[in-house]
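User: Quick sanity check before I run a bigger batch. Here is a single chain. Can you write out its predicted 3D structure?
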Amino acid sequence: MDKQGRARDYSSAYLRRTYREAGQVKNETVANLSVLPEHVIDLIDAGLKGTALVPAGEAVTIARSVPHGHVAAVHAMARQLGLPALLGPAGPQRDLALALVISRVVAPASKLSTLTWWDDTTLGADLGVAEATTGDIYAAMDWLAARQDAIEAQLAARHLAPEANPSRMALFDLSSSWLEGRCCPLAARGYSRDGKKGTLQIEYGLLTDPEGRPVAVRVFDGSTADPAAFTAIVKVTREKFGLEKMVMVGDRGMITSARITALNQPADDGTRPSPYGWITALRAPAIKKLAADDGPLQLSLFDEQDLAEITSPDFPGERLVCCRNPVLAAERARKREDLLAATEKLLAPVAARVRAGKLAGAGKIGVAVGKVINKYKAGKHFDVAITDDSLTVTRRQAQIDAEAALDGIYVIRTPVPAAELDAPAVVTAYKNLSRVERDFRSIKSDDLALRPVFHRLEERVKAHVLICMLAAYLTWHLRRAWAPLTYTDEDPPQQPNPVAPARRSAAADAKAARQHDQDGRPYRSFRGLLEHLATLTRNQVRFGGTGIEVPVLAEPTSEQRQAFDLIGAAIPLTIK
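Assistant: Done. Predicted structure follows.
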């Protein structure tokens, strides 16, 4: 007790030794440690009890820290989707093929770059591919290419069969990518959808379910036209996938009248295949013909609505669904005026030279005009009068007005009965082709960097495109699962009017405006989320004085935990 009557606690610490002398046990106080800090006393106590003590900075060493979260998350989603079993029987070839698909999602690069990248993540060690050679990779690609039909047949059964796809509908579109080199048998010159004029390219067609989920891909030589690709994919769905009745949706350049005629023709043995429906759109000349004179397509149809269904003797047995999009009409009018004005601007210097006498002769004037008048593909809208000493350019205003009257109007054609698919549903099905375009953007540039193609052998090119398609399949599901963490619209509103432009939900607009969730965490792009997951590392922890290394995961952030929760997986210490 102190002088004020308060209880006080005292503690003492002594260093003592015990020994025997003449058969008796004796104790000796070596030192009074009471004045030392408590943690120093604890260290002395531990050392006397045999604990090996090391400096604090040497107690634990991080021998190596390797990015883990991004590859672990993508692998977890692959397992959720049954992708390893889909690729084929277990073995080194399957592990390599799976690693190539995951790598294409996480860090798309050339095969040589991917090979060196594997050792810089946990993917290489956990899948046993870190020691692979380029020869091993090419052998795995050949193995995967040989299994393409079996893989796609399983995907078709999963997503296009009647049980999963009651509408029996599939979307198909064609794109292209350029090649480096000149030795690939598939390399050819054709219409480049990449804007790479004059380069050799390949064409590849993507088949998806109505949601845009990739199911199959076919590679063609670079000069293949859309209708030929459509014929090939119909043959695949019938003969390889065994889908007897389908509705194929394709753009106006793909499902032509000739393809429609051949679609349900009897086979060589005289048997008639099961009927295939289709949905496509008319080209501009056919629309113009429908609207000419007293044709069935009259502008008065759109006085009170922007969708109307008509028939025409030129398209027997078909339904024609006519749509008018005012937003599209305004955009086309603006673009036309811009092109006309740009063409007049190019012609103005030529006319000035003629007026100044610096350019004379009908032939020379005509050559100068011909060099520029069709640069913007607007020459058809001008009357050009040329003499030896004059040039007069005037707009064909009546023709321009006639074309403008059809701005924003498109016509969808289909033989599918109204009892199976009403007019708004037909429009929706055709506009869903935008989902295939989204897949192409993901495959070609946004996510998977398919282009350019460097392989020389035909089968390797096909295997490369197949890997990208399987990676797109993974990405499709990851984007949907991770929508709460990204700017992706989690619940797109149902469009009451299928003709109107698609809109984002109010919640998605709020995401874009706030840029952070309610907990203050930033929303990320899909690629940004993968980069954030990569900061979840697996560390080789070495304990001082033992030589023992133990793998330990870094503490996950709340976003990283949620990313794994959203795909229904725990954060694994190892991938496999």
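The mean pLDDT is 89.

User: Great, the batch can go ahead then.
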